[in-house]
Amino acid sequence: MEAAALPLALPAGATFHTAGEAVAGLTLLSQGVVRIFHALSPDCQFTVKLLRAPHILGVIEVMQASSWVASAEALTPLEGYMLPAPVFREALAMDHGFTTAVLTDLAASFEGTIRVSRAMGFDGCEQRLIRVLLEYAEHFGRPGEEGLVIRYPLSRQRLALEIGAARRSVDRALAALTSRKLLSLSPKGWQVLHEPEALRALLLAPG
């Protein structure tokens, strides 16, 4: 498979997979962080999750010979490879151990998919906002004097875009969380999570 892999390099900000487009093969990420999202329109999206390399995108789509089910954006510069779909399918057919490993990895991802489906259907603005902030904290969070500092530019407009909410709804949710001393904005403009565990607990709260 190594001989068939094609080098991949993308700048931060590039949308390199778009839902509905044909899948040429697997994307094998060796460096960088990507955002997986659904887009109802250019101004209304829903962030599903953030993924850090090493990671593989497109396994289900290639196995099903379907189009991309979600879009992907490079949050940082990306490096990796593209493995053509026919090469991957041939490896699945010829190597039982490889097939088992692929299926095990897919099974492990189902729990996260179920949680995201619930968020899209039932969570309110505040819970969707918390979930996205915690996703960014996992990949870009750095411990600071006042809490976990998300060292990635997250404007209120971007947060509104990523959770599919109006800007004023995000303003209200941030104000509510700030008044409870759960988060704040640093002098450099970074989001600071003062009580990450308390925020995670809010995701489990009913309603």
Task: Explain how this protein is built.
GO terms for molecular function: DNA binding. Residues 1-92 form the Cyclic nucleotide-binding domain. Keywords: DNA-binding, Transcription, Transcription regulation. It holds the Pfam family cNMP_binding. Residues 123-197 form the HTH crp-type domain. There is one protein chain. This protein is α+β, with helices and mostly antiparallel strands and 207 residues long. A 4-stranded antiparallel sheet has the order 1-8-3-6. The model has no long low-confidence stretch (mean pLDDT 89). Helix 4 crosses helix 5, helix 4 packs across helix 7 and helix 5 (156-163) crosses helix 6. Strand 9 and strand 10 (148-150) form a beta hairpin. The chain has 2 domains: 2-121, Jelly Rolls, CATH 2.60.120.10; 124-204, Arc Repressor Mutant, subunit A. The longest helix is centred in the middle third of the chain and has 27 residues, at 96-122. The chain has 7 helices and 12 strands. It is elongated. It has helices at residues 59-64, 85-94, 96-122, 125-140, 156-163, 167-179, 196-204, and strands spanning 6-10, 15-17, 25-31, 33-41, 44-52, 55-57, 71-74, 78-84, 141-143, 148-150, 183-185, 191-193. The termini are far apart.
For the secondary structure, the number of strands is 12
Count of discrete structural domains: 2
Please, how many helices? 7
CATH topology-level name of the largest domain? Jelly Rolls
Q: End-to-end span in angstroms? A: 48 Å
Overall morphology: elongated
Identify the quaternary structure here: single chain
Report helical residue fraction.
Answer: 40-55%
Order of helices and strands: EEEEEEHEEHHHEEHHEEH
Pfam families: cNMP_binding (PF00027), HTH_Crp_2 (PF13545)
Keywords: DNA-binding, Transcription, Transcription regulation
InterPro entries: cNMP-bd_dom, cNMP-bd_dom_sf, HTH_CRP, RmlC-like_jellyroll, WH_DNA-bd_sf
Protein name: Crp/Fnr family transcriptional regulator
